TrEMBL record:
PANTHER family: UPF0127 PROTEIN MJ1496. Gene3D superfamilies: Protein of unknown function DUF192. The lineage of its organism: Bacteria, Bacillati, Bacillota, Bacilli, Bacillales. Signal peptide: none annotated. This is DUF192 domain-containing protein.
Length: 112
């Protein structure tokens, strides 16, 4: 995953798996025991998520079609809902604390 911030690109050691089929998008991370530290998923199209049947908190980045980070929801706990984010096209689910640890901010561009 790469993050563009103020004309500087930094490559993060995170492998993103694309979830773009109905079944993968529906299931997401439900019922999984954990998310590996250097792994994440990109759900497309997606402008909101729920945390039903999740067992661990995550960070979520909502991106527009160009990859701009519109909203970051850090430390999202199980059994919570994120309502639709205007103009969001992709949700990237990452291990809890990843956005802060790697300095990902709203307004950055993310490529995976």
């Amino acid at each position: 995953m790469e993050v563009l911030h103020q004309n500087t690109t930094k490559k993060l050691p995170i492998e993103i798996e694309k979830y773009n089929t109905f079944f993968k998008r529906f299931r997401g991370l439900m019922l999984k025991k954990s998310l590996q530290v250097e792994k994440g998923i990109a759900i497309t199209p997606c402008n909101s998520i729920h945390m039903f049947f999740m067992r661990f908190p995550i960070d979520v980045l909502f991106l527009d079609k160009r990859g701009k980070v519109l909203k970051i929801v850090p430390h999202l706990k199980p059994w919570r809902i994120v309502p639709p984010i205007k103009n969001a096209h992709t949700a990237i689910e990452l291990p809890q604390g990843t956005a802060e640890r790697f300095g990902v901010y709203e307004g950055n561009y993310v490529y995976y």
